[in-house]
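Write out the 3D structure for:
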Amino acid sequence: MSDHFLTATTTVVAGDITVLVAVGEIDRDSTTVLADAVHELPGRWIVADLAGVTFCDSSGLNYLVQLHNRLAGRGGSLAVAGARDFVLRTLKVASLDRLFPLRPTVDEAVTALTTP
């Protein structure tokens, strides 16, 4: 079990869009916290607010890809908002900015999901 702590909460902000707020470190031991938070969400669009995330390893990246693929299967998508520099660089090095939008704020991420 990880000594690091992660919390995740969700809020529906507009119709079919849910904001997932994660705070802490995302690693192989904590991705289940994210999975549990979004497991039964009916929506097709999720903004992952990572402003409070201080670390994300390859397990976290893999989880974000899986979540995006699940949403894409429903005709939706994932967007990431507010990632700190280290986490943002990690997402970009993994070329995840080509898979889903990375935006500085939740509002901009919501706009990215709702603008064709």
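The two ends are 42 Å apart (CA to CA).
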